[in-house]
Specification:
Strand order of the largest sheet: 1-2
Structural class: mainly alpha
Number of helices: 5
Number of domains: 1
Largest sheet: 2 strands, parallel
Number of strands: 2
Distance between the termini: 35 Å
GO molecular function: methyltransferase activity; nucleic acid binding
Radius of gyration: 16 Å
Helix content: 25-40%
InterPro entries: DNA_methylase_N6_adenine_CS, SAM-dependent_MTases_sf
Strand content: 5-15%
Protein name: DNA methylase
Order of helices and strands: HHHHEHE
Length: about 110
């Protein structure tokens, strides 16, 4: 199978390993009976949010919906979301688990 290589590719493919873990911070005024809900909605940067889930929820997540970046300050600038490497899929698999599913919203779907 052909492969695409470029200077700096290794840093891009392994970028998620260099991002520090963050803590999930509950927002009680936006919560509805959080103690017995069994569900979470996490708002934040995709990578930071996924890494925050790993320590407590690794392999237990049933569904992840990842939306394109917003609140980036780029003023509508088009970005590349073509990140579909085996390494990224493997890492997402660590978060989601065997029975889970990951959804990703393509940016053009909002332009209909």
């Amino acid at each position: 199978m052909p492969t695409l290589n470029w200077i700096g590719k290794d840093a891009v493919v392994k970028h998620h390993k260099n991002v520090p873990f963050r803590l999930l911070e509950p927002v009680p005024e936006l919560s509805f009976r959080p103690a017995d809900a069994g569900n979470l909605i996490v708002q934040g940067d995709n990578l930071h949010a996924l890494k925050a889930l790993l320590p407590r929820y690794a392999g237990q997540v049933k569904c992840i919906y990842i939306d394109p970046p917003y609140n980036t300050g780029n003023g509508g600038r088009i970005y590349s979301d073509n990140v579909n490497s085996p390494e990224i899929r493997q890492w997402l698999g660590e978060v989601v688990g065997k029975e889970g599913i990951t959804f990703k919203q393509p940016p053009y779907a909002l332009e209909l």
